[in-house]
Every structure is written in structure tokens, then in C-alpha cells.
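[Solved] Which block belongs to which protein?

Original post:
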Amino acid sequence: YGIVYKCRNKESKEIVAIKKFKETDDEIVKKTMRRELKMLKILKHENVVFFQDAFKRKGNLFLVFEYVERNLLELLQESPDGLKPMLIKNLIYQLCKAIKYLHDQNIIHRDIKPENLLINDNMQLKLCDFGFARKISMTANENLTDYVATRWYRSPELLITNGYYGPEVDYWAIGCIMGELADGNPLFPGENETDQLHCIQKVLGNLPSEQIDIFYKNPLYDGKQ
């Protein structure tokens, strides 16, 4: 939905990252932009990317962030066989702290993936990209959007798209990332939604019976077992 630039403040010489959203009439994109800006204004944590400012120019929205050197995907590309166990432990601990902070405020991120985990030179992790983040009731059942999260990190309840899920979708993504950090390979690299469910069940066994019932009622999987 946007392009990120590395920029320098002409006065302070500080290096920052600026995310530019293009002017659009697409309501989904507009909603994503509004949601991200709303979330960034309330989130303040050492493991969440620091939001500095927002401004509009020529119909475009710009968000200004602290500059972080790389993301977890780039770190994995530098270590294709996986990271050292102590580094994995350190990064996952920081990610868990960030997610606990969100969940304590009744916010679920819904798009945790290596590209959205920034890593600075001190190996400090910063969670970013809150376009899919959503404030929910942690006790009441809510019908929520199903098409969130990159497929490889999407939990079964998101894949079978019954619309009812909670903070557990973030826990699932953390587990997927921890597995990927261990050997450099995605844990469940499905090619489509059906294959994704197949990859998960190959490792973890059959889905619970209530999820199987939902699967058979979903027209997306009509004729499939």
C-alpha cells in the first residue's frame, strides 16, 4: 500500500524512514491508511517502531518513523541456514514483549511476518506495519475480516475463514517465525490456501473436528477433503 524511503532531515541531519501512501480512491487502501495512522499514534514501546510524525502533501499521506537498518527477512537472507539459538531466543523474546504490549491494549496485529520485524545493529527488534492491526474485545466473539496475514504465517482459523478468531492468530505467527529462524526455511510454505492447510496438517496432524466442520461448509474448499 505504500513505498518507504530512507531520508535525511535537512536541519537536524537525522536519518529517518518515510512511508508514502499514494492518493487512491480504493476504500480498502484508505481504510488501511487510516487504521495504521490511528494505531501508530497510541503505540509507544521499545519493541514497536517509533512513529515521529505524519503530514500530507499533494494528496499523499506521509508517515515518518525512526530509521532501522534492516528487517528479519534480510537477516535470514544473510544466514540461510538459520540463526544461532541464543539470537533466536533474544529476538523471539522481544517479539513476544511487543505482542503482549499490543494484546494488553486489546489490539491484534494480524500480519506478523519477517518483513514486518525490523532489526537494528544492536539486534533490537521493532514491530512495524500496523495496517491490518485491529482493536477487538478479548472476551466477546466478534466477526472479523478473514483476509489478513501473509499466507505462510496464517493460522488455521484464518485459512478456513469463518471470521471468528482472537489474539491466538498472533501467537501462531510467532511460532511460525521461530521455526523459520531455526533452519532458515519457512515452517509452512503453502502455495495456496488449500496447500497451506495441507502443510500444517503434515506436521501437526488433523485439524480439530469443529474446524473440519467449518472447512466443509466453506465454498472456497468445495469438493476438497
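(Second protein starts here: sequence line, then its C-alpha cells.)
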Amino acid sequence: AVARLPVVVIGAGIGGASAALAISRSHPVVVIDAVGLAAGASGVSAGLVNAFTGRKAARGWRGTEARRALDRLADAAGAPMRASGVLRPVGDEKQARAFRASASAWPEEALFVEAEAARERWPHIEAFHGALWIPAGGHIDVPRLVRGALDAAGRLGAETRLGVRLLGWRDDTDHVVAITDQGDVPASHLVLCPGATPLPALGAFPFGRVKGQTVTLDARLPAGAPAVAGGT
């Protein structure tokens, strides 16, 4: 009986949609979200695709594998990345040293551009201390990616239930039960992908917040301008 129960995925953002698509290839899946598709952090994400993150532009752990996984997800969802490259303007000289070190360590993936050359190439972007150029980067429409991934999961039999709030869960002998405001949902497994949505049931776990992305749009940017990641 347990094998026939669905895997219940909580959250219809990029995490939940990705999990639902992967799991639905081999198991029945039910996706539950209290509001709607990409209604939380995924709906406002800048969607930057950039392996060099953080104050020091350190290359992300397993960045190659992550990029390949994103490409596969985007292809399945019909939401390709806009391959504009990513430019990271430097905030100060200390950061410039860190950015140069990253570019030196990964010369095939990143290039440090000194201030004068950066002004000539990207006159609409302030890069007083230079910039790190990641040519293989870009950005992706995250809400479109979420919708496409859930549509693809749906074609494999996954079900999405919106407007259903998770209240908690309980373990039974051989399965788990998701307790929602619209009734209990028996499941073989419960996958929690709530993103930034408060989930009181997780209060007992030692989770902390992580920073996200903030975007400032300037209508004067020329066509074909790269995606820009903040220097801090």
C-alpha cells in the first residue's frame, strides 16, 4: 500500500517544482502550495545564473554539476536561460584582489576587467574598481521555469493543489501524513520546499535565513546588456 502513496512536495516554487519533476519520473507526486505557483521568493528572484558568488566571488561548490542540472531542468521546462553573461562590478580594492584571484584560478570561466576597460565596454555600468566578467552566465525567468517544470511533471502524472496550507505532519507505522487545512494527505514521503514561506512546523529545526537577490532595473540599459550581479 505504501508504494502506491504519492510523494507529497510542499511548495510550488523553484525547489518544489524541481523536486516534483525529478520524483515524478519514478513515483506519483502531489505538490501542495498555500498560495500559487512561484508565489513566494521564486516569483521575485532575479534568476541570475552565476557560479561566482559571495563577497569574494568564490566559485560555487559543484558549480559544473549545478549548471548541467539547471540546463536539463530549463530544457524540460521550456524556459531557456538568456545567455547574456554576468558582470560583477567591484566594490573596493580589497574585493578587486579577491575577484582577480578567482579569475586567475578559473581562467576559462571568468575574466577580471580593469576599470578603464570596463568603462569602455560597458559605459552604462559603474565599475570604478573593475569588474568580474562571467561569459557563460546569464539569467532565467524563474516563474516561467517553475510553471514549465510543473507542467512537465503533470504530464508524468503529478498533481498540483494550490490554496492548501500545510499545518504539520505525523508519522504513521509505514508512511507519513501531511496535515493540511483541507484534510490529511497520506504520503510515502514528505518533501519540504517552502522557500521563504513561514512554516510553523519547522520551528523546532535549527534552520537559519540565507540572503537572496535584490534587483534594480534601469530602463536606459541598452539592448543586449549583460546581467549584473551586485558587487557586495
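Accepted answer:
You had them paired correctly. Confirming on the second one: The CA atoms of residues 100 and 197 lie 37 Å apart.
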